[in-house]
Amino acid sequence: MREIRILKDGWRFIKTAESAEAALAAAGRGEAVSLPHTWNAVDGQDGGNDYYRGRCWYVRELTAEETAGERVFLEVNGAAMSADVYFNGRLLCSHAGGYSTFRTELTGERVKKNVLVIAVSNEDNDTVYPQKADFTFYGGLYREVRIIAVPEEHFELLKDGTPGIKVTPKVDLEKHRARVTVETWQNADAVTVTVGGETRRVPSAEGHAQAEFDIPDVRLWDGVKDPFLYTAEAQLDSGDCVTARFGCREYRCDPEKGFFLNGRSYPLRGVSRHQDLKGKGNALDRADHEADMAIIRELGATTLRLAHYQHAQEFYDLCDENGIVVWAEIPYITKHMPNGRENTLSQMRELITQCYNHPCIAVWGLSNEITAASPVNEDLLENHRELNDLCHRMDPTRLTTMADVFMLEIDSPMLEIPDINSYNLYFGWYLGELGQTDEFFDEYHAKYPDRVIGFSEYGADANPAFHSSRPEKGDYTDAEND
Question: How many CB atoms lie within 10 A of CB 479?
């Protein structure tokens, strides 16, 4: 049987240390913290852009019960922005990217008294995104850290933080049926898979198994109207078991008529969401995610752009449950770094691997305003082509998109790469007048009538500390209440 142990308490935080050994030696004098934790909860929100960016350390002893099991893995769900994991003094793994899950195996490294040391860095560099953007690059272990204990025969845990199970539904709207393909990865000879009360036992070849199911009279995942979810379960003879919720739905985009969900026009109106909260930074808990979703539903949103990185699995779950259509993206933003191409690809692989099963996700976002601080050159274009090809190889069921900064000319070769383009337009704020927004899209559509175009950001900015009874363009004030 699989057992998950959450390592919430018992951590010591050391802000500066030269090495893992030095961090361990200083642990007794370190600050006692619980996870999730960020060291920028205060200075990352004061507006000064002078928050601490460095390499900090987390130390924790692990009890015999916490490390018990035939095979034992450490799961880190968010370490911003890069991490090194040491177990009993040995470096087990490094991870570059602050928003995705990664794991490492502890099994063969266990001794009588086990100590875990994790170095986490949000330092400035030229290889790991993001490095230039208008949001705080919080540092810390800001999501859960867990121990996963499994039998010797178990589902895959290491590759790109995989859930070990992948579900692909294909809907036939005319026949009101769905064909569901379930794939799993494991070190066993056979897998038992169940969907909708039907069970298949399928062989595993070279660590991969696949089962097919038909769902007649399928109940669709139908947006906010009826976000119905099915569950796929896969089990090994050893007792290890994984599950995935999924929804049966069909998306398509029309350059004249817009977005369609399950064969009908479905207008997408919504907001973007960042994963932070006053006083907490990005160290959110389940209640914080639920509070954000409640606000989004109160607004009447049907769609959501999860800016500008992979969000917590709990929030994708909430989007599934609430029928919110999602744009999911990686933090390839503002400034192209020639040394960062591999990091864009690895972050995209992890995003798609870990989020594939969520029916809420309609598009994969390649980048955001990447030409704001970078010229359009061949290196930039090739990076986007590789990302676009990677998305289509890993997931032929979804489209790719990109958020273009308003200064990017509409005839740029950048716009030829993704399936869908969107623009971030701030007419009436940074430049011009609000009415120019309509003019922009009319011009674009007239020139490229066969392209789908989206509106990914708009509006004005405000600082909640500044108030005025008569707000003016560019003064960053919020209107006072009467």
Answer: 11
Q: Does residue 282 surpass a pLDDT of 80?
A: yes
- Cα angle 276, 49, 279 (rounded to 5 degrees) comes to 35
CA-CA distance, 65 to 371, in Å (whole number)?
Answer: 51
State the architecture of 3-150 in CATH terms.
Sandwich (2.60)
How confident is the prediction for the chain on average, in pLDDT? 96
Cα(74)–Cα(157) distance, integer angstroms: 10
What is the radius of gyration, based on Cα positions, of the chain?
23
Sequence-distant (6+) residues with CB within 8 A of 250 are 171, 173, 260, 261, 262, 263
- Omega before 130 cis (within 30°)? yes
Q: Tell me how far apart the alpha carbons of residues 202 and 235 are, in angstroms, rounded to a whole number.
A: 11
CATH top class, domain 159-246: mainly beta
Average confidence (pLDDT) over 16-36: 97
The DSSP symbol for 102 reads E
Q: Which two tokens stand for residue 76?
A: 């880190």
Sequence-ordered alpha helix ranges (H) in 2-64:
20-25
Q: Kindly report, residue by residue over 377-403, the tens digit of the pLDDT.
A: 999 999 999 999 999 999 999 999 999
pTM of structure: 0.97
pLDDT at 481: 56
Asked if 299 and 324 count as a contact pair (C-beta separation under 8 A), the reply is no
128 vs 130: CA distance, rounded Å: 6
At 208, list the tokens. 């991969």
Asked if residue 207 has pLDDT above 60, the reply is yes
CATH of 268-479, one of 3.30.420.40, 3.40.50.10470, 3.40.50.300, 3.20.20.80: 3.20.20.80
Tokens of 222: 């139908």
Task: Give me the half-sphere count of Cα atoms (radius 13 Å) on the Cβ side of residue 192.
Answer: 10
Q: Give the active site residues.
A: 369
**Domains 3-150 and 159-246 in one fold:** no
Residue 479 CA to residue 470 CA, distance in Å, equals 7
Average pLDDT over residues 74-82: 98
Residue 53 token pair: 């960016």
Lowest-confidence range among 27-31, 348-352, 430-434? 430-434
9-18, 48-57, 95-104, 352-361: least confident range = 48-57
Helix segments in 257-361, DSSP class H: 286-299, 313-322, 341-355
CA distance readout (Å), 23 to 119, 122, 354, 466: 9, 17, 32, 42
Q: Where are the domains of the chain?
A: 3-150, 159-246, 268-479
